[in-house]
Amino acid sequence: MGKENPSETVPPQPINICTIMYTSGTSGDPKGVVLTHDNMAMFLSGLDLFLEQFDDKMTVNDVYLSFLPLAHILDRVIEEYFFHKGASVGFFHGNVKEISDDLMELKPTFFAGVPRVFDRIQKAIEDLIPRRRKIFHLLYKYKLFWMNRGYKHKHASPLADLLAFRKVKNKLGGRVRLMVCGAAPWSEEVEEFLRVTCCCFVLQGYGLTETCGLSTVCYPDEMSMLGAVGAPSVYTEMRLEEVPEMGYHPLADPPRGEICLRGKTLFSEYYKNPELTTESIRDGWFHSGDIGEMLPNGTIKIIDRKKNLIKLSQGEYVALEYLEKVYSITPIVEDIWVYGDSFKSMLVAVVVPNEDNTKKWAAQNGCKGTFTDFCSLKEFRNYVLSELTVAAERNKLRGFEHVKGVVIEPQTFELIPSLMTPTMKKRRDKMLKHYQAEIDDLYNTLAKGKC
């Protein structure tokens, strides 16, 4: 090496290792996913081909705000693509709760995040809604009406954008053109709200570390894809496989099953774990563990998670992540972890209440004290449980999917060490260990009929 010892450069071969990325470890130990140079090159090439079909082109003037962990596959491949196109990447200063300061400083044209981040953006936007809320919601419905009829977001209602929604875009830095959500299922209500109010393209994608981060992607301004994660991306093949224990079949109506993937961006192996590699890749198809539904327009909607499926004592299967998605829409809920024991017949949950709505409840019920004080009240716990029951009935959940008891946690899960991954996914084993005593007490109380 060096001037005195010159050596020829040896460019990597397609099959050589480009990177080993470790999964977040939500259901156990993180796994080392081996991605080759061929995987990464095919991802970049496929994204180039996908973006060619749209009028809005990416340029060297685009700026990406990176605030996901650098070890997250979504952030990694976006940065790779921006460098590939000669565009810019800026990094947040380290506190996600203060990301608004970074938005105003960097003025990004694009950023990607997980549902938890976009939920916070929605709540921040709602705080901007002027006193004349009726006018805001009329403008919202008017713009949504025309977007649902095929108009692009920037042509659906320039008047509504001028009167109400430009303030939202200004709070995002004023230049944002595209926001992408990935890594976990996203509420349709939040997605629709951001599509209407942010004056930019808002869409979902789906992928895993094992597929180089992108397996399906939605099309901009396609309201028919609301709630879906899109169609298979370039160089990706997808099929649904039957999951008889959950009642899912790809030939049923609608077609449902475990999402299986193969293609040029599929990883080569789990690092030093041939058994798991063989278990996950069968006949060339990677079994994702996610349950998808094929919609009439050919797109995929994530509806369940095979890996977080539990069986209650009466023999009924329950998908915990799906239930958390349903219950989290409840206004009083900031975050929720649903738990079920295979030796029990009922579900319970740990709920982090929304602080503002908790204080409103306290004022309406004549309660005085701090947020933590309110969380300790039996009356408040009963109120939270009743709101979850309303959400369950509204979404037509089956009786055994109703939460029967709750533990109220005043701290957000992110503030409690080891409960969340860097990408804000729940570590279910750590959650159980942390709340084991409260869960046991709750089940004992339920067994005695006192809750």
Automatic annotation (TrEMBL):
<dbReference type="GO" id="GO:0010143">
    <property type="term" value="P:cutin biosynthetic process"/>
</dbReference>
<protein>
    <recommendedName>
        <fullName>AMP-dependent synthetase/ligase domain-containing protein</fullName>
    </recommendedName>
</protein>
<dbReference type="GO" id="GO:0010025">
    <property type="term" value="P:wax biosynthetic process"/>
</dbReference>
<dbReference type="GO" id="GO:0004467">
    <property type="term" value="F:long-chain fatty acid-CoA ligase activity"/>
</dbReference>
<dbReference type="InterPro" id="IPR000873">
    <property type="entry name" value="AMP-dep_synth/lig_dom"/>
</dbReference>
<dbReference type="InterPro" id="IPR042099">
    <property type="entry name" value="ANL_N_sf"/>
</dbReference>
<dbReference type="Pfam" id="PF00501">
    <property type="entry name" value="AMP-binding"/>
</dbReference>
<dbReference type="GO" id="GO:0005783">
    <property type="term" value="C:endoplasmic reticulum"/>
</dbReference>
<dbReference type="GO" id="GO:0016020">
    <property type="term" value="C:membrane"/>
</dbReference>
<dbReference type="InterPro" id="IPR020845">
    <property type="entry name" value="AMP-binding_CS"/>
</dbReference>
<feature type="domain" description="AMP-dependent synthetase/ligase">
    <location>
        <begin position="6"/>
        <end position="271"/>
    </location>
</feature>
